[in-house]
Amino acid sequence: MLRRSLLLFLLPLLVLLTPIVPRTHAQRPPLIAIQAGHWQTGAYPEEFFWLRTSTGAVAGGVREVDLNIDIAHRIAEYLRSWGNEAYVLPATVSPSYHADAFVAIHSDGHANKEARGFKVATYWRDWVATDTLVREIVDEYGRQTGLPEDWRITANMRGYYAFNSGLYEHTIAEDTPGAIVEMGFLSNAIDRRFMIGNRELVARAIAQGIARFLAARPAEGWPVPPLLPRGDIVEVLHDRVPLYPGPSEEGAHVDLASRRERYAVMERRTGWARLFFYSGKEAWIQDWQTKQLVVP
Ligand SMILES: [Zn+2]
Prior knowledge:
Radius of gyration: 23 Å
Number of strands: 14
Bound molecules: zinc ion
Largest sheet: 7 strands, antiparallel
Distance between the termini: 67 Å
Shape: globular
Helix content: 25-40%
Strand content: 15-25%
């Protein structure tokens, strides 16, 4: 009884409030961005100067970028035909680009022509949205293409520049689920023949994986993603500056820093700074305050 009277009291209020509720948000179709890997790399902003020469794999007379563009358009076409809003993006993403899903399309190349298979990766942080996006694409793509899954996910895939909003400006928004797909190896004759000869199937499989991800979205939305590492963004003044696993020169260096590449300073000790960089790795650099680093 109490409930019913409460409802009677609230109903007029609800009617009053209804027009204020923004309808467009709930009714808006999902927005999906498909990035054609290496497309228009000449237009990279200064912060990606080191990527301007990365034109992608070439094998058997096929340029990776051409295949990526073709497949990306087919994926977007499928997604649109299923009621979504879908766009094909070039290599440069506008700052804090927001979408319900962002998927970068690439094909692999390797000196070892035997290397084959596909792989899907996301940013290294743990977030159920991106984990779901990767899993659904892997499931659909693996099942429909029959291509083997290649487990050698590289640090550069996990730290893909277009995800890396901790370091760069031209990236997807932090709360946009992103994934990168390597559809197969162009340098492998079997993979190449499959991708070239089955473009429609390849595109539909990826599109269906994305559609499954969209359908898996909880009613209340995906949980808020963990924050990306933050720190002062710095550049290195010299090339080949050794980076160490800890704040000590003992032992071998683990990497070399390059000039004008961006790093985030996560911690400072006397004479040392802990750097976080592009691929998602961390290492220590010596003499940070005097000779090696510059704040852009
Ligand atoms: Zn590529």
